[in-house]
Amino acid sequence: MAEKLIVNPIDCEGHGACAELLPELIAMDEWGYPIVDPRPLPPGLERHARAAVSACPTLALRLLRAER
Amino acid sequence: MTTVTEPTMTELPRLLPPAQDGEQVQDLHTHVARHGRLPYRERQGTLIHDIEAAGLTGRGGAAFPVHHKLAAVYAAADRRRRPPVVIANGAESEPASDKDATLLWLAPHLVLDGLQLVAEAVGADTAILYTHADRSNDVGRRLRNAVAEREAATLDRVPVQLAEAPPRFLAGQETALINHLTGGPSVPTFIPPRVTERGYHGNPTLVQNVETLAHLALIARRGPRWFRAVGTRDEPGSMLATIRRADGKPRITEVPLGMPLKELTGEVRPDQGVLVGGYHGTWISGQQAAALTLDNASLEAAGARVGAGIVITLPADRCGLIETANAVRYLALESAGQCGPCLNGLPRIAAAFAELASGRARPQTRADLERWCGLVTGRGACHHPDGTARFVRSALVTFATEADRHAKGRCTATNAGTKTGANYKPFLPIPKATARMEDDWT
After folding, report:
1. Cα(B310)–Cα(B60) distance, rounded to whole angstroms?
2. For domain B238-313, which architecture applies?
3. pLDDT, tens digit, 9 for 90 and up, residues B115-147
4. pLDDT value at position B440?
5. pLDDT grade, residue B5 (50/70/90)?
6. By CB neighbour count within 10 A (0-12 exposed, 13-18 middle, 19+ buried), where does B33 fall?
7. Could you tell me the CATH superfamily of domain B6-227?
8. Minimum distance, in Å, between the CA of residue A57 and any CA atom of chain B
9. CB distance B190–A32 less than 8 Å?
């Protein structure tokens, strides 16, 4: 089952660890908050995505099963 | 025989008192005489099919199919073996809208009927009516009286609790409402979980706008066919609309979906601004308005939506840029301040728009506005940044020529320089707003 990244914008405090670990899917906006690629994870990036999720100090980044 | 005749099928108003009754409040006796008794089904779930056949959608602004929510709550309650909660949402927070307050004031029993019927349909044991303290009438007292009338008549099977919403723009947002009712601050929470799954105290919760419940109470009595006798095939029924024209006074009128917009705006010049849907809505030109109808299928062409039925015609002597700047400042202050993009983006958008309005725009101001609108859209826990961005973008398009003039220090509407702002009399109603801190909430 494909997974996708979502960020809880209330919990996110813009620490930036995710964008550093997974620049393929996460960019930073001009205020330091992540812009997350909403599409299902491309093959090969699952491990990096999990690392980014674990690295989030506020647990704002999550992996969800993609509905499509 | 109780056969409904054709003229009755399409007669409006359906919800508000008939014209000959004027502003007369419909007490329980008048209400029952007009609409008949509350038609309990004596079985859970059966009303859901009628609502689906009627094609009723939420009248709070999102136009979400009502039967989907009913079915979701019903299923979640069954699956999780938790008794559901039903909430009538009358926390009408769009400052330009007055239709829910008017409905609650004039026809509270229709809303309370609808609340009982959805409680029965999903098997709820808790029912709450959530409203603002009204701006002009003592609606709280009116509702307490209405509930007491029904208690005396042993009408309600689920007791109704009345709760008051704080006077904030986001108070009626579904998750903010749940948060507030369960003792938290009146600010949105992140979805998932949906409130239909886990809402009030973790129970499956149905939140429906009060007007939606009033329509539902009539569909339960008269059936889906009656409901569909007005409106369009895809967007059936009628809706309450708040109309504001040159005098600025709100007029509440019940109109069929699909009504020509020009019947609501009155005479408008092609370059005049018309605001559809309030401060999360869309500015369109008078020229566009003349060709559109009040339904989402038509309004989509202009990037607009019916929303909660607000149609405002900006008088020729008022400036769309100044009006928008005032409203955007209010929206920025009303951000819950929880999500980074909204917290950072909305104040910047408000400040840049104020530059545009006051003729202080820098060369990059409009490009900044476009970029920030893009950056905040879809990145909040709620739709506050999305709605604000839509409103701002529509103003940049509709008032583009005027923005060019302001850049040269002239304002068409006031026929003066943009520096004369101090004498300008604002048209759009803007409540007092203050930046919000979570611990402001008690």
Report:
1. 11
2. Roll (3.10)
3. 999 999 999 999 999 999 876 778 999 999 999
4. 45
5. very low
6. exposed
7. NADH-ubiquinone oxidoreductase 51kDa subunit (3.40.50.11540)
8. 16
9. no
